Amino acid sequence: LNTLRGIIFNSGAAGYYLDNYKGLLLKFIGDDEQLAQLLFALKLHALTSGDEKQRRQMHREMVDGYASLADEAGLKKLSSKFLHQAFDQAFIEEYADVLAEFEKATGMPYEKADAFKQDFMDKLQKVLDAAYEEGLLEEKVEVEGRVKLPLRIFEKIIYDKETAEEIRDFIGFRILTHSIADCYAVRDIVRKLLMKKLKVKF
């Protein structure tokens, strides 16, 4: 909430509107973070009403304003929900097309991607923890991952002019190391133990 208090918006109508909303939000919620999340969730609910034009206007407001506000306030999961649901409700046909392209490229429906990501992360983390115990790494490392939001896939296709076949990071992973030596060691471990089986290009 202290982060939320410190956010400064650009000048203009949108910035003025969001700054007023921020002030109202802080005045109403005090120090109750759960209440802040509830109010953000109410904005998401508003997307399910109205005609197509109103939903698309709300989508732009969500993407430019509330998703950024939630993200900068440290509510990253909520920010992702803003982006996901805003696109889902405002661009129904495009959303369905993106999910179809995702399944075609990855071999799994979008709703199963998060479970796949977590399972892969857990298995990779165990391999790297074992490598640390064996002395192959100087320090423990951390595996992170994310599934690309449908809106971000859509933006790549529309704005970056990439085809779905050219997008290589529908599901992405990164490994946080504490030294250059461990970075190269992890690269070698991943190549030998995992990527050869999965046939992933470097």
Care to describe what's here?
Helix 2 packs across helix 4, helix 3 runs parallel beside helix 5 (76-90) and helix 4 (52-72) packs antiparallel against helix 5 (76-90). The longest helix has 21 residues, at 52-72. The protein contains 9 helices and 2 strands; from the N terminus they run αααααααβαβα. It is mainly alpha-helical. The chain has a two-stranded antiparallel sheet. It has helices at residues 2-6, 13-29, 33-45, 52-72, 76-90, 92-106, 113-133, 150-158, 180-198, and strands at 142-147, 171-176.
Task: Give a quick precis of the structure.
This protein has 202 residues and is mostly helical. The chain contains nine helices and two strands.
Number of helices: 9
Number of strands: 2
Helix content: 55-70%
H and E string: HHHHHHHEHEH
Widest sheet: strand ordering: 1-2
Instruction: Give the distance, in angstroms, between the N- and C-terminal Cα atoms.
Output: 41 Å
Which characteristics define this entry?
single chain, two-stranded antiparallel sheet, 202 residues
